[in-house]
Write a structure and sequence with these properties.
TRAP transporter small permease protein, transport, cell membrane, transmembrane, TRAP_DctQ
Length: 174
Amino acid sequence: MLKRIETAISIIAAVLLFLLMIITFIDVIGRNFFNRPLNGAAELTELMLASTVFLMLPLIAIRQKHIVVDLLDFVGNRIFKAAQTVIGVAVGVFLFGMMAWRLFILAESTARYNDLTPTLKIPIAPLVYGMSLFSGLTAIAFVGLAVTMFRSGSKRPVGQADAPGELAARSPNT
């Protein structure tokens, strides 16, 4: 079931990116060759970018494909690595939980004032509700990672490597 949801979300994100590419192409051609940019292209770009980013956040958390900066990679202590992972998961839960809460408040406000995009008059509230929902799902994904990590007795989430080349050597997906 989770694999189907993951596939559906990936397809939706790919379609949004393709539409974004088409809109940008039409806008650039219209602007540069015909002096007629696509009306509302900037608004559609903003809406599709926000949709794509927030749509993919839970998948990135589940797949553990975050951007990672290894500042303290030289510390080889397993207890330190376990603490680092726990802190990372806790920060993820906290930040995405806060984002979900604040975005929900913003969505309520935009719905109450019936905020629309300036040119195309597209309602903004559904997008912000979606951003809040997917931020909340990302926080839940981090909680799921923590539960999985503690149930398995692992010092790090499943799939996270000790060394840069270790995951590639173990992973059947690469």
